[in-house]
Amino acid sequence: MLISFEIASRKYAADLTRGISLAIPLRFEGAQPSFFGAPPASSATVTSGDWVGDTRKGGSCNVREYRFVAHCNGTHTECVGHMVDEPVGLNDQLPGSLLPATLVSVKPATEAIDATLMQAALLRHANSAFHRALVLRTLPNGDDKQSRRYDGPLPAPYLTPDAMRTLVNAGVEHLLVDLPSLDPAHDEGRMAAHRVFWAMPEKSHSLADARRPNGTVTELIYVPDNVQDGYYLLDLQIPAFMTDAAPSRPVIYPVG
Asked: Are 86 and 96 a contacting pair, CB within 8 Å?
């Protein structure tokens, strides 16, 4: 399953059998990450009259109802519909192909991931041909990220507006982070980093004001420690939900 491709007149190769999922498995009955005080994702058996959708209870098959908050229960991807009055379906904003992507790791000294930190990370991996998508891993990279409850006003690092401008200026159209949000959990509704990413004026909720409406943000990913910083192809897998956000399974393939 080797493929070869060309970007900016340079040839590359990738092995599609070596995909690495960055999605946190969502265990509806077990430990799971959560954000902003949202209830845990849950499931329940579907019943209809005397019929029960559970083979352990005499049912002919298993049928369950699943409840979750896409923005708060696990790995998810969101589009500009997260910020505007008009209905915008995530599937309409997704790229139709594999994306060149750069994986970088940063170790913020405080909660804020600033422009200096992002500039240094991009300088270490300066091939701008792979900056269309950026995967951001924060350090330390504890395994508890896969089940952490992000509570309180500053439960995790966040990107400053200047840090986001650095990424926008670098050409990043699809941003993936192992954070519950680009912004602080409680920022009086400013959502400044989100607004910089979609190039929206302060307080606007109009799609017409978004100058970068085709970008996507994926939050609550997990990048295993054994995955090295560098260049990849990204397959951003999303169910066909016509919503502003949906659970997602980003898969990256090392590039040589």
From this structure: no
